[in-house]
Specification:
The protein is an alpha/beta fold. It has helices spanning 19-26, 46-51, 63-69, 93-101, 118-127, 169-182, 194-199, 212-230, 250-258, 285-296, 312-326, 333-336, 339-348, 350-361, and strands at residues 3-8, 31-37, 59-60, 76-79, 105-108, 131-133, 157-162, 187-191, 203-204, 234-238, 262-267, 299-305, 330-331. The chain contains 14 helices and 13 strands. It has a 7-stranded parallel sheet, with helices on both faces. The protein has a 6-stranded parallel sheet with strand order 3-2-1-4-5-6, with helices on both faces.
Length: 362
């Protein structure tokens, strides 16, 4: 049975900075999510907030409210906010400590490592709970440099990149993985951020916590682990940030380390400024595709849309315009599924479609 988890996302559930909580509510293979803490949405259903349909995962006022109403104390307390600075706010320390005192283990996705905090480790020991710092990298002696092994594999590698941070790359990646699994393919998903790892990805690394010298090697290493262990039909690699974004280098490391044979680009058409840096204008989808294809020497095979702030009519119109002007299959994986993406993958890698045909004929 999965362990249960409560997610802390005060003031941010359903927003860009709540992406860790949002993602775990949508999909978690490792934990049963029993609730989200966000006093600004207390009493609401998380599914209604995210997709307009109830999922019976409630939002609670605070930790005390959650524990009083739940049948059992959750096994895990997950910090579900992803602020750009990546550090715990002072007023949040008491909430983490209170969770420990209730006997709840802590999962920390921040750049600040709780295991380096003497107060946290002392209280954790006192109450017999564990602390997991998801982003804490291995010791440098255990990190991997790029070896070039990935240049010699024939397994299709598809990267889902984007035009900004927190614009749905991981969500699309997970939906695509599920859709390919449903068609009988052996799929390896490579998580590159904290949320995907917490969700239960078998292979992954929080790439933005890795020293730049080892970024490409760590991505390659995770892909090669999947390749050696599982012999997948296809490998899906989650993107981070954006190649064009001046504050992030993760996309460059992912492209260099994964060497994708095809790329899907996620874009939020209504977003005028980048999510964490309001002084920076969003790139156009055209400019990002050009940059990605120049840098990677791979082809963009499809576009996926984040429909934030879009009406259904605007979404459908945008999809039609992109397909007409850019000559690329375009969809919103959350609303319309992944059929177009899978068709574009078959066109890029014809051997995959034949594998499906062979599998279905047995």
């Amino acid at each position: 049975m999965k362990e249960t988890a409560i997610i802390y996302c005060e003031g941010n559930f359903g927003s860009k900075d709540g992406k860790t909580a949002n993602g775990l509510v949508r999909s978690s293979r490792k934990f049963t999510i029993v609730g989200v803490i966000d006093s600004t949405k207390s009493g609401m259903d998380t599914g209604e907030i995210l997709v307009g349909e109830k999922n019976s995962i409630p939002v609670y006022q605070n930790l005390t409210d959650a524990i009083e109403k739940l049948d059992n104390v959750p096994n895990q307390f997950i910090y579900g906010i992803a602020p750009s600075e990546g550090f715990l706010k002072e007023e949040e320390r008491s909430i983490v400590l209170r969770a420990m005192e209730k006997g709840i283990n802590i999962i920390n996705p921040l750049h600040e490592f709780f295991m380096d905090d003497k107060e946290f480790t002392t209280v954790a020991k006192q109450f017999g709970v564990s602390i997991l710092d998801v982003r804490k990298p291995a010791a440098k002696k255990d990190l991997h440099l790029f070896s070039g092994r990935i240049l010699n594999i024939n397994t299709p590698v598809v990267a889902v990149l984007g035009t900004d941070s927190a614009n749905g790359k991981r969500t699309t990646s997970v939906l695509l993985e599920d859709a390919l699994l449903a068609k009988g393919f052996n799929v390896a998903f490579i998580a590159t951020g904290q949320t995907g790892i917490i969700q239960g990805a078998k292979y992954g690394v929080a790439i933005d916590a890795i020293p730049s010298q080892f970024m490409t090697g760590e991505i390659e290493y995770q892909i090669m682990r999947a390749y050696d262990n599982d012999k997948p039909d296809i490998i899906i690699v989650e993107g981070q940030g954006a190649l064009s974004h001046p504050a992030y280098i993760s996309s460059g490391g992912i492209i260099r380390g994964a060497r994708p044979g095809a790329i899907i680009v996620q874009h939020a058409p209504k977003r005028e400024r980048t999510g964490d840096f309001s002084y920076e204008k969003m790139p156009t989808i055209e400019s990002e595709i050009n940059l990605i294809e120049t840098f990677s020497k791979s082809k963009v095979i499809a576009i996926t849309i984040n429909h934030e702030n879009m009406t259904d009519e605007e979404l459908i119109t945008t999809i039609s315009e992109y397909e007409s002007n850019l000559k690329l299959p375009t969809t919103d994986a959350l609303k319309f599924g992944c059929d177009k993406l899978i068709t574009s993958i078959f066109e890029a890698f014809p051997e995959l479609e034949s594998k499906q045909i062979v599998g279905l004929s047995k």
